[in-house]
């Protein structure tokens, strides 16, 4: 089983992530990958480019992190501790994909793991890393099989291991599978988990690029981010930046997707800056009889947007200005007959359960928000509950907690109340009766 | 029997099970790793800078062959890795896919995240509960199934989705449940 693609192309210059996918959507093995120019970027880079050249390319490309944060990958790489005075460190691929509504990395790893491997080796070369780890969530069983197979093929072909492709550079990759918990996706929690500890985040600074796994310089990047690296290395940063052709300042293409109450959920590779309306169309629109009420642009930790926001370009800045976040770029579509209070309760239950428990506002605040939301959902909310929810959301907002998990929980909560306050108010009980001056006659309620 | 769901993941270690662990640490541990398990764990250790990093892998190795991780297994793993059993216990209780109590022969992980919530999670979960007579976090009396909630399975385009053991299924209607479960004996 694989995700439906809205459209496909075999043109590597317009669809760098997906042009090599097979028509039957099976595994693209080493031979086929190489026939389709696979590992060409790695070979030419090792031959013609210095690590600094590659980092410059990455900066020009303006590839913004596809794990949800949108931080420039080139900038991140330029801050890694490199050079003779530093030990060689690690490239860690964040393949923990658990953001509600997100199903893009799974497809890349199941169908074309060699692209990820090539991207990781290039990242290793640029950042002077010794080894790479793919931190894969335990439930992705098929992806694990395919990655293992690709690693073996690459090692046998001399693409991984000592003297990568006959160069002086050595690099190997190991697949590490997780054992659950969303917080493992937070990059410093992920490093703790990789080291065999509880997945509590670490304080920053030091940033992983200075001191990460086992105290060594460590670059953590998302699967999709790393899969973009080979094309940037091969065609240059300017080419990549121009892929988004005036639609967005952010460079390149991205895997977008749609799930929820649409006719044909699925994925598609499109330039940054495509609109939500275009994606919704590709997904066949709403299911029969349903109308669009609201949508999340990129996962459970992004803010609710309205139908009028469908015309916005999907990129980090435009969606940020509308009071949400692009996040992972996979839309969740909500129909008119869905209670926003219930959906918000579902989201906050997720965040409460997945809190790592390290800091108080998140550990105690999120379960409290769930209690209030449940009451409102059942029409048993009390006067002041909505303000209490807003104040809770503020208290777990950016800068108030140890990591970005809690601010991620605050965003859907705040925006749900902002756009749909009337639904929350409808769940507050007996406002009038409590203010009643006369005693209420027995039997009248 | 019931077991904690990951809903309380960060506080899953009950006082009782901590007590058991301390008590059993004082006794001779009658749990033994098989040679195969031990080799697999030692192999795992070789992939990292130090043995501690293999602790989650080691727990998964034991769980793969035995279904769950007993107190004795925690101690045996700590011996192999050379780190305190309390550290192994801390890790074992943190991660939702490590089971510190026996589970059924088949574990159902039903996605309760947003896209599946929108496409019929409640109805799917209720259908499973009705079919098996258990709620989330519980195991059937014949030890055949344990039902647990799980974070977004990355199959939102096929919601509502669930996994049984290593198999992903979706989209599912409540009416599909009975035939699906019959495939797992
Ligand atoms: C609670 C939480 C969960 C996260 N989960 C993921 C994840 O599953 N995958 C991912 O790539 N990034 C995730 N991130 C973002 C990472 O912390 C980090 O920013 C990212 O891996 C960096 O890679 P990128 O710059 O290539 O996106 C998460 C962040 C937080 C706060
Ligand atoms: S914000 Fe939440 S998840 Fe992040 S460190 Fe604090 S308790 Fe843990
Ligand atoms: S929300 Fe259920 S699989 Fe993603």
UniProtKB/TrEMBL annotation, chain A:
It is an enzyme of class 7 (translocase). It comes from the Bacteria. Keywords: 4Fe-4S, Flavoprotein, FMN, Iron, Iron-sulfur, Metal-binding, NAD, Quinone, Translocase. Residues 341-386 form the NADH-ubiquinone oxidoreductase 51kDa subunit iron-sulphur binding domain. InterPro entries: NADH-UbQ_OxRdtase_51kDa_CS, NADH-UbQ_OxRdtase_suF, Nuo51_FMN-bd, Nuo51_FMN-bd_sf, Nuop51_4Fe4S-bd, Nuop51_4Fe4S-bd_sf, Soluble_ligand-bd. Its EC number is 7.1.1.-. It holds the Pfam family SLBB. PROSITE patterns: COMPLEX1_51K_1, COMPLEX1_51K_2. Its cofactor is FMN; [4Fe-4S] cluster. It catalyses: a quinone + NADH + 5 H(+)(in) = a quinol + NAD(+) + 4 H(+)(out). PANTHER family: NADH-QUINONE OXIDOREDUCTASE SUBUNIT F. Belongs to the complex I 51 kDa subunit family. NDH-1 shuttles electrons from NADH, via FMN and iron-sulfur (Fe-S) centers, to quinones in the respiratory chain. This is NADH-quinone oxidoreductase subunit F.
UniProtKB/TrEMBL annotation, chain B:
This is NADH-quinone oxidoreductase subunit E. The lineage of its organism: Bacteria, Pseudomonadati, Pseudomonadota, Gammaproteobacteria, Oceanospirillales. The keyword Calcium does not apply. It comes from the Bacteria. PANTHER family: NADH DEHYDROGENASE [UBIQUINONE] FLAVOPROTEIN 2, MITOCHONDRIAL, NADH DEHYDROGENASE UBIQUINONE FLAVOPROTEIN 2, MITOCHONDRIAL. InterPro entries: NuoE-like (IPR002023), NuoE_dom (IPR042128), NuoE_N (IPR041921), Thioredoxin-like_sf (IPR036249). Pfam families: 2Fe-2S_thioredx. Coiled coil: none annotated. Keywords: 2Fe-2S, Iron, Iron-sulfur, Metal-binding. CDD domains: TRX_Fd_NuoE (cd03064). Belongs to the complex I 24 kDa subunit family. Its cofactor is [2Fe-2S] cluster.
């Amino acid at each position: 089983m694989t995700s439906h693609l809205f459209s496909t192309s075999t043109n590597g210059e317009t669809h760098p992530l997906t042009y090599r996918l097979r028509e039957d959507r099976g595994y693209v093995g080493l031979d086929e990958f190489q026939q389709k120019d696979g590992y060409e970027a790695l070979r030419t880079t090792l031959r013609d480019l210095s690590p600094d050249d590659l980092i410059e390319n990455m900066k020009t490309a303006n590839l913004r992190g596809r794990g949800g944060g949108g931080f420039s990958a080139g900038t991140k790489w330029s801050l890694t501790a490199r050079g003779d005075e530093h030990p060689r460190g690690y490239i860690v691929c964040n393949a923990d994909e658990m953001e509600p509504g997100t199903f893009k990395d799974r497809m890349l790893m199941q169908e074309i793991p060699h692209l990820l491997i090539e991207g990781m080796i290039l990242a290793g070369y640029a950042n002077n890393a010794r080894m790479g780890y793919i931190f894969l969530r335990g439930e992705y069983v098929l992806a694990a099989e395919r990655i293992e197979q690709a690693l073996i093929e690459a090692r046998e072909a001399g693409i991984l291991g000592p003297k990568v492709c006959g160069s002086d550079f050595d690099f190997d990759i190991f697949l590490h599978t997780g054992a659950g918990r969303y917080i493992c996706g937070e990059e410093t929690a992920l490093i703790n988990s990789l080291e065999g500890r509880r997945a509590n985040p670490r304080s920053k600074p030091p940033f992983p690029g200075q001191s990460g796994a086992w105290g060594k310089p460590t670059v953590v990047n998302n699967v999709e981010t790393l899969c973009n690296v080979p094309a940037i290395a091969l065609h240059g940063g300017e080419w990549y930046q121009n892929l988004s052709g005036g639609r967005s300042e952010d460079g390149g293409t991205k895997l977008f997707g749609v799930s929820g109450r649409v006719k044909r959920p699925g994925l598609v590779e499109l330039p940054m800056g495509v609109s939500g309306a275009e994606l919704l169309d590709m997904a066949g629109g709403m299911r029969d009889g349903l109308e669009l009420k609201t949508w999340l642009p990129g996962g459970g930790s992004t803010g609710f947007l309205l139908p009028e926001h469908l015309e916005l370009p999907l990129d980090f800045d435009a969606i940020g200005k509308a009071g949400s976040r692009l996040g992972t770029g996979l839309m969740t579509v909500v129909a008119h007959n869905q209670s926003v209070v219930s959906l918000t309760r579902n989201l906050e239950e997720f965040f409460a359960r997945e809190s790592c428990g390290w800091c108080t506002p998140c550990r105690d605040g999120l379960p409290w928000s769930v209690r209030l939301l449940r009451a409102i959902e059942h029409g048993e909310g009390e006067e002041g509950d909505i303000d209490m929810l807003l104040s809770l959301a503020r208290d777990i907002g950016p800068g108030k907690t140890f990591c970005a998990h809690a601010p991620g929980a605050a965003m859907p909560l705040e925006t749900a109340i902002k756009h749909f306050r009337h639904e929350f108010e409808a769940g507050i009980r007996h406002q009038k009766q409590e203010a009643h001056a006369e005693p209420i006659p027995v039997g009248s309620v | 029997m019931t077991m904690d769901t990951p809903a309380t993941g960060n506080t899953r270690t009950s006082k009782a099970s901590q007590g058991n662990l301390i008590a059993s640490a004082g006794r001779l541990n009658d749990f033994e790793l098989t040679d195969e398990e031990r080799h697999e764990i030692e192999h795992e250790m070789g992939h990292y800078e130090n043995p501690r990093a293999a602790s989650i892998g080691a727990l998964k190795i034991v769980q793969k062959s035995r279904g769950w991780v007993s107190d004795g297994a925690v101690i045996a793993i700590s011996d192999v890795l050379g780190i305190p059993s309390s550290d192994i216990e801390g890790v074992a209780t943190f991660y939702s896919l490590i089971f510190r109590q026996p589970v059924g022969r088949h574990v159902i992980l039903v996605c309760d995240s947003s896209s599946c919530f929108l496409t019929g999670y409640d109805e799917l979960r209720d259908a499973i509960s009705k079919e098996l007579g258990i709620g989330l976090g519980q195991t059937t009396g014949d030890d055949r199934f344990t039902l647990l909630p799980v974070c977004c399975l990355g199959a939102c385009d096929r919601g509502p989705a669930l996994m049984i053991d290593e198999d992903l299924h979706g989209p599912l209607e409540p009416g599909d449940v009975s035939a699906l479960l019959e495939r797992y004996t």
